[in-house]
Structure formats: structure tokens, C-alpha cells
Amino acid sequence: MNEIISVYRSLFGYYGPQGWWPLQCNASESGFDARGYHPGSYEFPVSRAEVWEILCGTILAQNTSWTNAEKSLTRLRMNGIASPEHLLGMTADGIASLIRPSGYFNQKSGRLRAFAAYFIGLGGVIPDRGELLALQGIGPETADSMLLYAWKQPHFVVDSYTARIMGRMGILDPDFSAIRSGKRYEHVQKIITKGLDELPAGKIPVFQEFHALLVRNATMHCASRPVCSGCPLEHSCEKRV
DNA sequence: AACCAGGACGTGA
DNA sequence: TCACGTCATGGT
User: Fold this and answer.
1) CA dihedral (A227, A229, A233, A238) positive or negative
2) Is A65 a residue whose pLDDT tops 90?
3) Is the CB of A224 within 7 Å of strand C?
4) In A 168-207, which Cβ lie closer than 7 Å to strand C?
């Protein structure tokens, strides 16, 4: 058992399944968490609306707390313009006024509207990574989030939390400020993907859970100011801070 | 009152 | 390639 898998097992054993990506359009149905999580269920998204909600969420959540991204999603839904077709019918300014809570609303509104047109044009076909990266406002993390959680493709999502946790543990280069620059993102992604490859289970659920678990642990313990006491990774961590 | 949050992009060196 | 500034709201 390699180090990557060891981290995964520790986190999963401690926190359990996270139920990503949360879908608020299902939040009120039985069997779902009040905020749209569905721990232990990996069949989602099923409908086109669910796929679109995730895609929308990945853009809105960029460098923003999920609670703020959720507020924008709710406002879009409550105003009946959550679908890509409805968004296309709006002006960028009209969209911007509704997605204010998730920040960068002037950037995100235009990019979201353009992405709605792109999504409609796809006609249900799953795009490849390079195609997504060519779009305005979609970088490596957002592209991989879309592919992994909306389209169930085996792309591991690397984020600043991943780099922070692995960096402090001594598994990765602790320089996590430049994870997205150059080829470092793909480098880290490759290391983790290769590590998880030894697992017997299917890739998709593991990729989905691992990223969600890293976010969870970064929130509860491995924050910018770490709270190492009680951290499920405490015993195997070098605690480089 | 700074600091951080489920980033991406443009710019100058 | 890189380091840095910009975009912006909301919670602690």
C-alpha cells in the first residue's frame, strides 16, 4: 500500500463517504442531505438538469466558499433561469445581478453565459479536457471538476488543499502556491492518479471521494492555520508549516 | 479588521 | 516560465 492510498484510507475511514457533488435540485427529496449531498450514491448526475447544475457550480465556486456558490445557484433556480437555454436568453448583466453572492460576478456572468452556449452545442457529447481548457474562465481544476463530477470521467481534481495537505505531510513539494502554473498541476495529478491506480475499486467513485475528503480535511484540520490535534493524518504527517 | 474561501487570466520581467 | 495584480462577496 503506497502513501497516497494510505492517506485516502485514513480520510475515508475517519470521515466516511462525502456525497459529492451536492445537487440542490434533489435536496428536498428523501434520501438526500438537506444541502444536496448524497453520500454513498455514485449514480448521479442522472438528468441533463443535474449535469448542468454541477457544471454551473464548478464555475460559480471558483475561489469562493461553497455556501456563497450555493446562494447563487439558488437564486438562479428561484428565478427560473437555471437551465442553459434560459441563461442564454439573459444579458450578462442580468445574470451578474443574480450571481452576486459568489463573487467575481462580472467575470463569471459572461463566462457562464458563454459556457451555456457551448454546453447546448455539445448536444450531450462529452468534451475532452483540451477543449474545455480552451474556453474562457475554465482552467485545469474547473475542467477536471466538470469531467469528474458532471461527466464521470476519470480525472482527479487537484486543488490548493491537495497541495497543502500533501505538502505538509511531506509527500509532495510543499510549494503549493504555484500548483496551477506551468505543468505542476498535471505533475501532481499524475502522482496521485498513479498512486490510486493500485486500488482494486473503480476509479470514478474513488477519485470523487478522495478530492471531497481532502477538501473536508483541509476545512476541519489542515486549514491555513492548521489544527493538527485530532487530524486523521496526524500520526503520518511531518507537520511542515 | 485582516484573512480566507472547492481559480483563472493578463501582464511584465 | 515566474511572480504578481485583478476580479468581489460573505463569514470568522
Assistant:
1) positive
2) yes
3) no
4) 178, 181-184
Note whether A51 and A115 are within 8 A (CB): no
The nucleotide minimizing the C1' distance to residue A35's CA is: B6
Q: Which residues neighbour A182 within 8 Å (Cβ) at sequence distance 6 or greater?
A: none
- A67 by Cβ neighbours in 10 Å (0-12 / 13-18 / 19+) ranks as exposed
Q: Which of residues 140-199 of A touch strand B (CB under 7 A)?
A: 140-143, 145, 149, 159-161, 180
Question: What is the reported pLDDT for A107?
Answer: 98
Residue A158: nearest nucleotide (C-alpha to C1')? B6
Q: pLDDT at position A181, please?
A: 65
Cite the DSSP H helix spans in A26-159: 48-60, 66-78, 84-88, 92-98, 105-122, 129-133, 140-145
Which of chain A's residues 113-142 bind strand C, using a 7 Å CB cutoff? none
Best CA proximity match to A173, nearest among A101, A182, A96: A182
Whether CB of A66 is under 7 Å from strand C: the answer is no
The whole-number average pLDDT for the span A232-237 is: 95
The grid coordinates of residue A115 equal 459556457
pLDDT of residue A123 exceeding 60, the answer is: yes
Range from A28-32, A117-121, A151-155, A211-215 carrying the lowest mean pLDDT: A28-32
